[in-house]
C-alpha cells in the first residue's frame, strides 16, 4: 500500500470510447485469465462486486465465450455483499444470478454466496471460514507473502466516493489487517449492513480489475490514479496488488478529469 508521498503503482489503464467497447474488452480479459488459470491450476477463482459491473459482464454470456470458457472450472465468490435476503432487489447475489449465473453453466456447488439467514457478523465469519477451507485444499491459491487467499481475479467497481467492494473512505474497515472478510453496519451507501473482503485479501489477488464508468466516477478516478494527489486513504488508491496485476477499465466520461489533468490515460504501468 503506498503511503502518502510514496510513488503509487498505477497499474495498467485501459480507457474506452464507449461502454460497449469496455464490456467487450472486459469479457476478453476475463476469458483469457480463466483460460490461463485453468491451464495452470485446473480452476479459476473469481470474486465479483455489485453495482454496474454485472451488466458489463454480459458479453461473457454471449458467443464465443458462452461456448469457449470452461465454466465447470469456475469458482465464484463475492468481494462484497449487502446483508439482505438473496431474493431482495439489493442483493449482489440476486443481481449476479439474474444477469450472469443463470446464463452460463457454472456449477451451483461452485457458487459461494453469503449466508442471508444469520447476522452480518456471523455471515462474515462463515464466509471467511469457507474461504479458509478452500485455501487448505488449494482450490483458492495462497499468497506466499502473507498466507492470504490468492484469488485468480477480483473484480471491483469504483464508487463515486472512491470506495471499492464495501470499503468506504475513512471507514475503520479499511484498517482491518487480521481478518480476510469483515462486516460493516453503517455503510454510507444503502443498505447499511454489508460484508466485504479486506484490503490484504484484495491486494493478494493474482489479478485485480477496477472498473469505472460514467461521469460521476471521474473525480474518484482522478483521485485514485493521478500523480501528486494526497488521497492515500481513498480506498481505490489503496488497491495495490503486492504480487499481482492491477488493470483499470475506464470509459471516456470516467476518464475526463484524468484527461484534463494531462495524466497519461493510456496503459500506464
Ligand atoms: O455492493 C455494492 O454496493 C458494490 O459492490 C459497490 O462497491 C459498487 O460496486 C460500487 O458502489 C459502484 O456501484 P455503481 O456501479 O452502481 O456506481
From TrEMBL:
Keywords: Hydrolase. It is an enzyme of class 3 (hydrolase). Hydrolysis of 6-phosphogluconolactone to 6-phosphogluconate. The keyword Hydrolase applies. Residues 19-248 form the Glucosamine/galactosamine-6-phosphate isomerase domain. InterPro entries: 6-phosphogluconolactonase_DevB (IPR005900), 6PGL (IPR039104), Glc/Gal-6P_isomerase (IPR006148), NagB/RpiA_transferase-like (IPR037171). Belongs to the glucosamine/galactosamine-6-phosphate isomerase family. 6-phosphogluconolactonase subfamily. This is Probable 6-phosphogluconolactonase. Its EC number is 3.1.1.31. GO terms for cellular component: cytoplasm. It comes from the Eukaryota. It catalyses: 6-phospho-D-glucono-1,5-lactone + H2O = 6-phospho-D-gluconate + H(+). GO terms for molecular function: 6-phosphogluconolactonase activity. NCBIfam families: pgl. Pfam families: Glucosamine_iso (PF01182). One of its GO terms (biological process) is pentose-phosphate shunt. Pathway: Carbohydrate degradation; pentose phosphate pathway; D-ribulose 5-phosphate from D-glucose 6-phosphate (oxidative stage): step 2/3.
Amino acid at each position: 500500500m503506498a503511503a502518502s508521498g510514496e510513488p503509487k503503482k498505477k497499474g495498467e489503464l485501459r480507457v474506452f470510447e464507449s461502454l460497449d467497447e469496455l464490456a467487450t474488452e472486459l469479457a476478453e480479459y476475463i476469458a483469457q485469465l480463466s483460460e490461463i488459470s485453468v491451464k495452470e491450476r485446473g480452476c479459476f477463482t473469481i470474486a465479483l462486486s455489485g453495482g454496474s459491473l454485472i451488466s458489463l459482464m454480459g458479453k461473457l454470456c454471449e458467443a464465443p465465450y458462452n461456448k469457449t470458457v470452461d465454466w465447470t472450472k469456475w469458482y465464484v465468490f463475492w468481494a462484497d455483499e449487502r446483508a439482505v435476503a438473496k431474493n431482495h432487489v439489493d442483493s449482489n447475489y440476486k443481481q449476479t444470478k439474474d444477469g450472469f449465473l443463470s446464463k452460463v453453466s457454472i456449477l451451483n456447488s461452485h457458487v459461494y454466496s453469503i449466508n442471508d439467514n444469520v447476522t452480518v457478523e456471523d455471515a462474515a465469519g462463515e464466509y471467511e471460514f469457507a474461504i479458509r477451507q478452500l485455501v487448505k485444499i488449494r482450490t483458492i491459491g495462497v499468497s506466499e507473502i502473507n498466507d492470504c487467499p490468492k484469488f485468480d481475479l477480483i473484480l471491483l467497481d469504483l464508487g463515486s466516493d472512491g470506495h471499492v467492494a464495501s470499503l468506504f473512505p475513512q471507514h475503520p474497515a479499511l484498517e482491518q489487517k487480521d481478518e480476510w472478510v469483515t462486516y460493516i453496519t453503517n455503510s454510507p451507501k444503502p443498505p447499511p449492513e454489508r460484508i466485504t473482503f479486506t484490503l490484504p485479501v484484495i491486494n493478494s489477488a493474482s489479478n485485480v480489475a477496477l472498473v469505472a464508468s460514467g461521469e460521476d466516477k471521474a473525480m474518484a478516478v482522478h483521485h485514485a490514479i493521478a500523480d501528486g494527489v494526497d488521497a492515500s486513504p481513498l480506498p481505490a488508491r489503496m488497491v495495490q496488488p503486492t504480487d499481482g496485476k492491477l488493470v483499470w477499465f475506464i470509459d471516456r466520461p470516467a476518464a475526463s478529469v484524468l484527461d484534463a489533468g494531462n495524466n497519461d490515460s493510456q496503459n500506464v504501468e
